[in-house]
Amino acid sequence: MTQLSFQTNAEGGIPEQAAGGILHIDLDALAANWRILRDNAGGAETAAVVKANAYGIGIEKAVPALGKAGCRTFFVAHLSEAIRVRAVAPDATIYVLNGLFPGTCPTYAAFDLRPVLGSFEEIEEWAGFCRAQNRRLKAAIHVDTGMNRLGLTVPQGLTLTDRAELGDFETALVMSHFVSAEESDNPLNRQQIEAFQAVRVSLPGIPASLANSSGIFLKDKPHFDLARPGYALYGGNPTPDRDNPMRPVAGLEARIVQLRWVEAHHTVGYNGRWLAQDRRRIATISVGYADGYPRASSARGSSGEELLAGMALVAGRPCSFAGNVSMDLITVDVTDVPEAQVKRGDTVILIGGDLTIDEVGRRAGTIGYEILTNLGPRYARLYRGGEG
């Protein structure tokens, strides 16, 4: 008898044979995507946004693979994420996007991390810490050009040169963030570029950063000194009005637990929201919303109807979900798949092929970002590539 060996680690150490879902992650594709973005960034340094556990694929795997490809600068959302990045990238430049929490300056200094300062209060606290330490530590300053979320206002940004606190630390970067760069014709893009350019001119000699994944591809080429792609690194389409230039990085399979025939006029799943109009064959797969697969992908209606709902590729054929996505299970209508081609224990594809992360998001009424960042810890994670 073979005994499975279980582990617990940051990437998820569940044996493939015991996992309800299997997440395939192609680190070579991740590195290739970074190079594509670098080559389109007009000579600007190209960083990598690895927040949310590198968009669900794992900081400890993604960062070294990106580093080997040539990436030297990383952005995260939280201080805890930055410390994880530092552990695997001892020489990298690391920025923390979500601002400076009160009392955290010593941790930034201890791990050589750079806060992104978005208010005068944060600037004052960082400057005061630097004065007390007699060290000109580095930080970025965030100026809000339209998001109305984090950052100094543009008028505040234009007064930065009048503030004495800027002499107490080194402003290594001034940055802003696009509101709608994925909408290439949105006039707000041009307004933000012009506002950011005004702030940049008022701070001569300081490197500037505006372009996210989609911003890299805008016709105005707002690359400045540093581009900060995120979603596109992981295979998301930065140009929704055109073909996706990126390679897929994440693929998801789920294992079939059981197959059964459901007779005509019977329902499937919680609350009986899906009705079999005729005799249907149903596969139950071992993934659900507890694994991060969205409940909004549920199929509610009747067999044979065109429903905007989740799908699986079963023996290469697209098959619609049947009924509500539940916590640990999803039911799939596999009637059109020959019985000999699908059996208990087989895996079906939930992300892969035509079921791109953008398409999976669309079918759930959300975006691919949410699909990626919700990928849960119960999957067996199988990495390939990333060795050089």
UniProtKB/TrEMBL annotation:
Keywords attached to this entry: Isomerase, Pyridoxal phosphate
Modified residues (N6-(pyridoxal phosphate)lysine): K51
Binding site for substrate: R149, M327
Cellular component, GO annotation: cytosol
Highest taxon of the lineage: Bacteria
PROSITE patterns: ALANINE_RACEMASE
InterPro entries reported for this sequence: Ala_racemase, Ala_racemase/Decarboxylase_C, Ala_racemase_C, Ala_racemase_N, Ala_racemase_pyridoxalP-BS, PLP-binding_barrel
Active site (record annotation): K51, Y270
A Pfam match: Ala_racemase_C
EC number: 5.1.1.1
GO molecular function: alanine racemase activity; pyridoxal phosphate binding
GO BP terms: D-alanine biosynthetic process
EC class name: isomerase
UniProt entry tagged with the keyword Isomerase: yes
Residue span(s) of domain Alanine racemase C-terminal: 249-384
Cofactor: pyridoxal 5'-phosphate
Reactions the enzyme catalyzes: L-alanine = D-alanine
PANTHER family: ALANINE RACEMASE, ALANINE RACEMASE, CATABOLIC-RELATED
Family: Belongs to the alanine racemase family.
Protein's job: Catalyzes the interconversion of L-alanine and D-alanine. May also act on other amino acids.
Protein name: Alanine racemase
Organism whose genome encodes this protein: Microvirga flocculans
Lineage, opening ranks: Bacteria, Pseudomonadati, Pseudomonadota, Alphaproteobacteria, Hyphomicrobiales
